[in-house]
């Protein structure tokens, strides 16, 4: 699959000496949903700002849709829509006017049919004549997305798109993002809601201290790095794990009522049936059991801890 965004040896340093980005190499494929995850201050917004032409890089090269973001800024930027974190809107403008104006900024001729389509897709059509100052925070965020889509970009950046919105609106936006991807739009999002990336992303990139520490397909990442936990609810509490079971590194809960076995689901050297048989031989009975697969959040926390 061809890369629609290519970042090579990208660095960004400020006059203070702070190095926000360090030798970033990253390719984002056409038509995918790519989630960029990292703690606060990791460099997510700086990276997005450089790709979108809002911040100049110190060194390195970035292309978007085949255009150099520095030397061919206008051509590159015409392919990009950006939804920033901040709810910056012109308070006294109407929804229709502010979205139409954004289209004109990119030199696009008026196209009321496209503006109507965008507003309807974002459930903003009945608000088209409302002043922005009268809208809720969630509606203002939808307006930002409408502005970013006004010039028909094929690359869309969403920087914390659902920050501060309720769960129902967040799920509505997930559906919108999927529909945009189905139309061929490449989506790049940063988010603090790890379940957002787990729900939507095709690939995930982790950034820490200005460096990309891992880029992988989401499902492959969760298969390779994910772990499973088998939790046994004991019929009778245990004082300690029998020595014969130490090889399994079982964890006993403080009240002695649960045994937890953590194992790598991709490896072949774990045998649940053998463990259960040995528990029976040791006279340990259980009343219930359940398994749990590691989530993307678990993997994220583990990676950030390892990179610290």
From TrEMBL:
Q: Which SUPFAM superfamilies match?
A: P-loop containing nucleoside triphosphate hydrolases (SSF52540)
**Endpoints of the signal sequence:** none
ABC transporter domain span: 5-234
- Which keywords appear in this protein's UniProt record, sorted alphabetically? ATP-binding, Cell membrane, Membrane, Nucleotide-binding, Transport
Pfam families, sorted:
ABC_tran (PF00005)
PROSITE patterns, sorted:
ABC_TRANSPORTER_1 (PS00211), ABC_TRANSPORTER_2 (PS50893)
**Molecular-function GO term, any one:** ATP hydrolysis activity
Q: Does the keyword Iron apply?
A: no
**InterPro entries xrefs:** AAA+_ATPase, ABC_transporter-like_ATP-bd, ABC_transporter-like_CS, ABC_transporter_ATP-binding, P-loop_NTPase
Q: Which residues cross the membrane?
A: none
Q: Which Gene3D superfamilies match?
A: P-loop containing nucleotide triphosphate hydrolases
Q: Which domain of life is it from?
A: Bacteria
According to the UniProt entry, the coiled-coil residues are none
User: What is this protein's record name?
Assistant: ABC-2 type transport system ATP-binding protein
The top of its lineage is: Bacteria, Pseudomonadati, Pseudomonadota, Betaproteobacteria, Burkholderiales
């Amino acid at each position: 699959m061809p890369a629609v965004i290519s970042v090579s040896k990208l660095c960004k340093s400020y006059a203070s000496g702070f190095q926000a980005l360090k030798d970033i190499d990253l390719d984002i494929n056409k038509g995918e949903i790519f989630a960029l995850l990292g703690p606060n201050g990791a460099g997510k917004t700086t990276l997005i700002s450089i790709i979108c032409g809002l911040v100049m890089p110190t060194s390195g090269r970035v292309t978007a849709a085949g255009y150099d973001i520095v030397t061919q800024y206008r051509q590159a930027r015409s392919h990009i829509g950006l939804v920033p974190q901040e709810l910056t809107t012109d308070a006294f403008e109407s929804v229709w006017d502010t979205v139409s104006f954004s289209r004109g900024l990119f030199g696009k001729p008026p196209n009321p049919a496209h503006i109507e389509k965008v507003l309807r897709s974002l459930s903003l059509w009945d608000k088209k004549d409302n002043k922005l100052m009268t809208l809720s925070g969630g509606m203002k965020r939808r307006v930002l997305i409408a502005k970013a889509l006004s010039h028909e970009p094929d690359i869309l950046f969403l920087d914390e798109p659902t920050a501060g919105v309720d769960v129902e609106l967040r799920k509505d936006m997930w559906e919108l993002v999927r529909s945009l991807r189905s139309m061929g739009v490449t989506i790049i999002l940063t988010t603090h809601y790890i379940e957002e990336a787990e729900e939507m992303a095709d690939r995930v990139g982790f950034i820490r201290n200005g460096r990309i520490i891992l880029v992988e397909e989401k499902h492959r990442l969760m298969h390779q790095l994910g772990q499973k936990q088998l939790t046994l609810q004991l019929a009778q509490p245990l004082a300690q794990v029998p020595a014969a079971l130490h090889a399994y590194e079982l964890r006993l809960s403080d009240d002695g009522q649960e045994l937890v076995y953590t194992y790598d689901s991709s490896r072949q050297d774990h045998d649940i049936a053998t463990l259960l048989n040995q528990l029976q031989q040791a006279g340990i009975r259980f009343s219930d059991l359940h398994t749990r697969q590691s989530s993307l959040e678990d993997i994220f926390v583990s990676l950030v801890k390892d990179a610290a």
